[in-house]
Amino acid sequence: MSYFGDFGDICTNTPSYTWCNLFYRQLSESSNLSSLLTGISSNSSSAPVGVNPSCGIPRVGNGGSLGNIGNIVVCALSLIVVIGLIFLTEKRKAAVGRVELRNMLIVYFITLPFQLVTNGSLLQQGSTVLVVLTAIHAALVATLFWALLANALVSTQVVEDGTMASLAPFFILCFLIFGGTLYIALDVALGITQTLGPSSNPSELRSVPLFVMTSLWPALAAIIYLGVMLYIILGMLKEVRPALYYILAGIVFVFSQLAWFLLGKVICNASGSKLDGSFLATIFETITVVILFLGWKSITEGAWDDPYY
């Protein structure tokens, strides 16, 4: 029976699920638990991302493996797309929430290189460098969804966008969420304090705090963001067309998660362990960000009317 916070089924049935790197280290470093790593996970030098995955992409260089080449390419292309969005956002000097949206895009941009490395089957499973990069990646993802939610809150104009009243709480909470999630992730893998890390039985692959910050919190933040934006557009601005952008973004984001969790093993088996659903998930996530930019653009002014400004 699975309990809240369990990662066992996910790490077995979802190829390239990034946070499984933390649990692999947890098992491999314990002489009593290393025997639980079986099959393709038993050899850390070639093991794919996951813990005893039913299908996984071997580490690059093993048996001619290119690693998770599909997601590596998509992450690289997404970096270019996000650079373009940041540039376009910066050009809209008078748009409400410009600074906050730019900050969110920057955080998303930073997550992409980490995603490329942490689920690209490039580094040896159980290595300290992979654990640290995975922990930073988890912290960045949690921070990204706070940045997303902050964009919705500033759109209500409760505080003026781009001012210290808006940016100070934004950066303070960014720091707290990043630091807290980083500590939790490192505690899971390294067992530094056992306070917020693994359960009392590490073989369960269970961590409620990690599950909350990497799964529950992002889902909750995305739902609240969508609700607030639809309220602003439909209730305050009395517009319909811009709302379609945000609804479409929500649908595409759901598709990204379905591609990862439902299609990952199917694609992995069909491709002979060369691809999985992670590259589709990244494509859909980047498309979601593009649609959010278009939605923001549709409800904001790009320049001041007065040429003096």
Automatic annotation (TrEMBL):
Keywords assigned by UniProt, alphabetized: Membrane, Transmembrane, Transmembrane helix
InterPro entries xref list: Chs7
Key word Transferase present: no
TM ranges: 69-89, 101-118, 130-154, 166-190, 210-234, 243-263, 275-296
Tagged with keyword Membrane: yes
Protein name, per record: Chitin synthase III catalytic subunit
Lineage: Eukaryota, Fungi, Dikarya, Basidiomycota, Agaricomycotina
Protein origin, superkingdom: Eukaryota
